[in-house]
Amino acid sequence: MKKVVKFGGSSLASAEQFRKVGEIIHAEKDRRYVIPSAPGKRFSSDTKVTDMLYDCYNSASAHTDITEKLNVIKERYQEIIDGLGLQVSLDEEFETIKNNFENHAGSDYAASRGEYLNGILMAAYLEYEFIDAAEVICFDEDGVFDSEKTNQVLSKRLENMPNAVIPGFYGAMPDGSIRTFSRGGSDITGSIVARAIHADLYENWTDVSGFLVADPRIVKNPQTIETITYRELRELSYMGATVLHADAIFPVRREGIPINIRNTNRPLDPGTLIVENTCRKPKYTVTGIAGKKGFCAINIEKDMMNSEIGFGRRVLQVFEENGISFEHTPSGIDTFQVIVHQDEFMEKEQGVISGLHRAVNPDTIDLESGLALIAVVGRGMRATRGTAGRIFAALAHANVNVKMIDQGSSELNIIVGVSNEDFEAAIKAIYDIFITTEL
Ligand code: ASP
Could you tell me which of 38, 79, 138, 416 has the fewest CB atoms within 10 Å of its CB? Predict the structure, then answer.
């Protein structure tokens, strides 16, 4: 078995956290390739090293002396070195970094040093080989990630290497200049490495025990999702459930490699397993519930709309021409509704209204703002009768008025639109009917 293990910033924020990580890695010899993030927050008011690096680089760009700021960053690493009793000195590395900052090596270079230095410490601590991600994670000359080249280079490099530490978050362009992924991008590196070595599992270690069925700020102590498919995850992430970088899914998904989200602070928790497909029956009918506030509905009415061929196309074209993406389009015989993100729509509102008048000559256009959408997602819904009935009974019981309903053709999700004020009550009611009563 081969496993790739990625550790997030909070898992590597201090020597104490490094020790936990060391224990986790040594507990299984299959955990062979390690992807560290930069040190994250040690406590809630702390600052992530990545943010400190960006800040320091901004000062360098403004020609301010950065000695003090770099010293504070260096202390973060020194604390880890001392706490672990490592025989490593980062003096030379920090000299180089200072020079490069002063010579304006770029903010991507600056940010990447967080993972680079943490990788050096991790490799020394584990006595694993260190591989600079700049040598194996390739971006093209436009700065776009080159997945095929990376896959070739990486698989060749790791072919005869029993284990290695490869820092997350960055790689290099053909001219050698450093390029990073977007924030949280170490997740992507882990996934890329898992693909390249044909890993059996990609373990992503963080500070939560996996995905929760609902947002814990709304539902008290929600259950953890044991197994989720990539498609279900996509639906939930789209609605705001975040644990993993969205781009981290693609490399492993195409190889059918599962991802296991685990908690460094509770290593015995099984976490959430993300899979391409499974015949494992979900524990509850519903896998997860997620939602977002801040949508707006544009309700278009026109007598005899149903016989007007091309009506929907002309409506959507107006949105396209205004650069607005739509979320849903529920329709009736003489009504057509378009649901959009309110903040995206607001700036272009008047242009859209006049565009709609010109395009379809409606009887009325009515705008309804302050809508929240809730996605009830679950592969178990397909085989179960009465799911929609239970959702709406629960909402009625909680005195929540349903403004919109949309069931995806996959029967994987039911989207419910309610007013922003009813958002929390609606999620609680749906959670209770499916999880609390099925417990
Ligand atoms: N250190 C980077 C960030 O804070 C990348 C990562 O942690 O995944 O965004």
Answer: 79
